[in-house]
Write a structure and sequence with these properties.
- This protein has a two-stranded antiparallel ribbon.
- The chain is an all-alpha fold and 204 residues long.
- α5 packs across α6 (127-137) and α5 runs antiparallel to α9.
- β1 and β2 form a beta hairpin.
- Helix content is 62%, strand content 2%.
- The chain has one domain: Glycolipid transfer protein (Glycolipid transfer protein, GLTP).
- The chain has nine helices and two strands, in the order ββααααααααα.
- The chain is globular, with a radius of gyration of 17 Å.
- The protein starts with 21 loop residues before the first strand and ends in a 7-residue tail after the last helix.
- It comes from Zasmidium cellare ATCC 36951.
- InterPro entries: GLTP_sf, Glycolipid_transfer_prot_dom.
- This is Glycolipid transfer protein domain-containing protein.
- Residues 31-169 form the Glycolipid transfer protein domain.
- Keywords: Transport.
């Protein structure tokens, strides 16, 4: 991962979650599908910064769910301009591949945002603890006994805190400020989608 001197990792991402259009007049916040998927793809690059092959299954899982949502969007673009419309229209057709993909993607995003928020807030905490706590709060309850050890291995393989933040950029105050702004956008998207996906109209 390379960026100009004084730059940060966030300079290299195509889109961050605080750049995803949200129409607050609809659906408690109708989220634009295209930009949300771009921001989600950009987020998976963070697992490369974490640097361990143990995170590859986490990255692949998120990538697979992004693909399911994008395939539905390409198949029915007019019905899929927002994530909420995409879900409603897919479920009307008695299918739920993309909807299920979105449920799992949001769980993965929630896990990532909770881990990084906890770590940013607690400046002496190692990433392994932040990620392990976030896993317990989010994904763990949905995972089978076969999947849990794979994710546990990833939590144990996180780099030291200082090394991770250095990889995000030389200018640490700027890194922390931009990570915070990025997380605020991510948390907003996740919050809206969790509420929607928990509602009756998103069930199959």
């Amino acid at each position: 991962m390379s960026f100009p001197p004084g730059g940060t990792y966030f300079d290299t991402t195509k889109r961050s979650f605080n750049q995803v259009p949200i129409d607050s007049t609809k659906d408690n916040g109708a989220i634009s599908t295209t930009e949300f998927l771009e921001a989600s793809e950009a987020l998976t690059g963070l697992f490369d910064v974490l640097g361990s092959v143990a995170f590859q299954p986490v990255k692949n899982d998120m990538g697979g769910n992004i693909k399911k949502i994008r395939e539905r969007q390409l198949a029915a673009p007019v019905e899929s301009e927002t994530l909420q419309d995409l879900v409603r229209n897919e479920l009307k057709g008695k299918k739920h591949t993309a909807t299920e993909g979105l449920v799992w993607l949001v769980r993965g995003l929630d896990f990532t945002s909770q881990a990084l928020r906890q770590n940013l807030t607690n400046s002496s905490e190692e990433l392994s603890k932040s990620f392990r706590d976030a896993y317990g709060n989010t994904l763990k309850q949905y995972h089978t006994f076969l999947i849990k050890p794979i994710f546990s291995a990833a939590m144990s393989a996180t780099p030291y805190r200082a090394d991770f933040y250095k990889k995000l950029g030389d200018d640490q105050p700027r890194v922390q400020k931009e990570l915070d702004e990025w997380l605020v956008g991510l948390e907003k998207n996740v919050g809206i989608l969790k509420t929607f996906l928990d509602s009756k109209e998103a069930k199959w």
